[in-house]
Write a structure and sequence with these properties.
It comes from Streptomyces sp. SID12501. This is ABC transporter ATP-binding protein. The chain crosses the membrane at residues 7-29, 35-54. GO terms for molecular function: ABC-type oligopeptide transporter activity; ATP binding. The protein has helices at 2-35, 40-82, 115-118. The chain has 129 residues and is mainly α. Helix 1 (2-35) packs antiparallel against helix 2. It is elongated and about 95 Å long.
Length: 129
């Protein structure tokens, strides 16, 4: 929760800094353009440089946010895996028989058409390996 609070403050703060810097450059630059000491193209270039400066800072904060979320998620998964099972252990467990590698469906009925259409083989899912 604390990490999310920091991120919720950090993102708007970086955006405020970016907007403030752009506004300051625009105000100072507009005065210089009016005085004839700066061209409009140079002012636009300065504004683009500000975006180029703040874009990696914002991307870094997004990566940090993803890292924080992943850390919290990992902690929750680890807590869940440490949780004791709610299924009680049997008093006298039975040994598992050796598996034969086949499945038998007994007393299972379903069909996909008439007897003539599907052919009567006596096995469900006949011919499937």
């Amino acid at each position: 929760v604390r990490g999310q609070w920091l991120i919720s403050v950090y993102f708007p703060f970086v955006q405020l800094l970016s907007s403030g810097a752009a506004a300051a450059v625009l105000i100072v630059g507009a005065g210089r353009v009016e005085a004839g000491t700066l061209t409009t193209g140079a002012l636009v270039a300065y504004l683009l440089y500000i975006d180029l400066f703040f874009a990696p800072v914002q991307q870094l904060s997004q990566v940090f946010d993803g890292y924080q979320q992943a850390t919290v998620s990992l902690r929750r998964i680890q807590d869940l895996l440490r949780e004791p099972t709610s299924t009680p252990r049997p008093a006298a467990p039975r040994a598992v028989r050796e598996l034969r590698g086949e499945i038998a469906f007994e007393d299972v009925r379903f069909q996909y058409g008439t007897a003539e259409e599907r052919g009567e083989t006596g096995e469900a899912l006949a011919g499937i390996t």
